[in-house]
Amino acid sequence: MSWFALQSAVRMALDTIWEHKLRSFLTVLGVIIGTSTIMGVGSIITGLDGAIAQVLRSFGSETLLVYKFKVGIRFRLTPEERMRKPLTYEDAMAIAERCPSVAQVSPFLFPFGGIHRVRYQNVDTYNVELGGTDPLYIMGGHSEMLHGRFFTDAENLHRRPVVVLGEDVYRALFSRLDPIGKWVEVDGHQFEVVGVMRRPRATFPGEQDNRVLMPYFTMRKMFPNLREHLIIAVAHPGKVAAAADEIRAVLRMRRRVPHDQPDNFAISTAEQMIEDFRSIMSTTALVMVVLSSIGLLVGGIGVMNIMLVSVTERTREIGIRKAVGARRVDIIAQFLTEAVVLTGLGGVFGIILGWLISLGTRLVFPSLPTSVPLWAAVLGVMVSVGVGLFFGIWPANKAARLDPVEALRYE
After folding, report:
1. CA-CA-CA-CA dihedral for 20, 23, 24, 26, to nearest 10
2. Rounded to 5, what percent of the chain is helix, strand, coil?
3. Mean pLDDT throughout 76-86?
């Protein structure tokens, strides 16, 4: 097919589409929805990947999180993981003493489940995240102070009733009041506020800073039934792998794990958690793209239907073209071009709508850096054009097989 013939076919297709604007729009509505869904899903997945990777990397490239099972996105625990014994404070101290590649260790005691409340005068806030740790937590770069200070070693050793609040807990309780020196009630116990932590720069979309931290030994005194420990270890620069091996050896010995049995604990790093998240999201993305392709299938069926109607309506025109010398391939090319132009325009509108979805998501969730990835835009265009080619073949072939004499006699 020559360049001039292609231009003529595209021009004829555009004229036909313009002549039947509403019908053409309704025909490709499924293509528009399918393409925009692919674009929207691609942009949201890209944004989630960037946001979660940023949050996980904010823990630090040298930070290792040691817990009884893997830290990160989990859908369910195995029966064996549910039966594992918690880590202990003594485990954290053993890591600090016997792992030369580890620069510092912070035990983190927390309640497993439940709803917890903080109260100041007549103002309550719920679903706070209680935790007991030591001053190394703030020294390890896991947070910054907005007001006041973090608690000290002396306050930890003497079990002083002091507490440091997350930024959103502070704003919910005190609004713009100075919180330093005020006393709050945490699950029935009185604590003096000595500081407010700044909300982490990297947070999950929609996440609030509901942390309420107190000295480790204070928490053990106030809440003696708590047993769950997370151990935060920071390796010396460039020694993350060595630190992980040393921690594994120490804990296997302390927890009496036989040499032929797997670990009954887990050591997580930021990069490992990012890989776990991406393995989950790759499957999710594939499922969502397949589901969104249903719209493209519906749109393709609509295109095929309208093209068959178009062949019937233009039977006489096809007969005239054949009578003046048009070949079968010319008729096929004409109707295939019309189908591709129709679905291609639907793909363009779908890309614009998908970009608007991405923009709207970014405005609603500022911490979700959505963007339309190149692969989504290319895939949207290729799929929409492919739909036109696939579903336009039968109508185009039907038009090309028409007998010119019968076509000219058609009324």
Report:
1. 160
2. 55, 15, 30
3. 82
Distance of alpha carbon 394 from the chain centroid: 41
Pairing of strands 162-165, 211-215: antiparallel
pLDDT > 60? residue 109: yes
Tokens found for residue 23: 């019908």
CA 141 vs CA 69, 138, 208, 300: distances in Å: 24, 6, 19, 54
- Burial class of residue 329 in the structure, from the number of CB atoms within 10 Å of its CB (0-12 exposed, 13-18 middle, 19+ buried): exposed
Which tens digit of pLDDT belongs to each residue from 357-400? 888 877 777 766 777 777 667 777 777 777 777 777 767 676 66
- Angle at Cα 253 formed by Cα 251 and Cα 255, nearest 5°? 65
- Distance CA(145)–CA(240), nearest Å, equals 27
The burial class, CB within 10 Å (0-12 / 13-18 / 19+), for 339 is buried
Rounded Cα distance between 226 and 215, Å, is: 14
**CA–CA separation, 39 vs 375, rounded Å?**
9
Contact call for residues 64 and 268 (beta carbons, < 8 A): yes
Q: Does position 89 have pLDDT exceeding 80, yes or no?
A: yes
First-last CA distance in the chain = 30
Alpha carbon separation from 358 to 58, 169, 329, 362 (Å, rounded): 25, 31, 42, 6
The four Cα atoms 292, 294, 300, 303 give a dihedral, to 10 degrees, of -90
164: phi then psi, degrees, rounded to nearest 5: -120, 130
Question: What sign has the CA pseudo-torsion 149, 152, 154, 157?
Answer: positive
Residue (of 245, 230, 227) closest to 68 by Cα position: 230
d(CA 201, CA 55): 8
Boundaries of every domain in the chain = 3-55+276-409, 60-269
Q: State the pairing for strand pair 183-186/229-235.
A: unpaired
To the question of pTM greater than 0.70 for the whole model, the response is no
| R_g of the chain, CA atoms, integer Å | 32
- What confidence tier does 219 reach under pLDDT thresholds 50, 70, 90? very high
Tokens of 175: 């609004």
- The label of the residue with tokens 């080619």 reads 389
Amino acid (1-letter code) at residue 136: L
Q: Which one-letter DSSP state was computed for residue 87?
A: P
Q: How far apart are CA 382 and CA 380, in angstroms?
A: 6
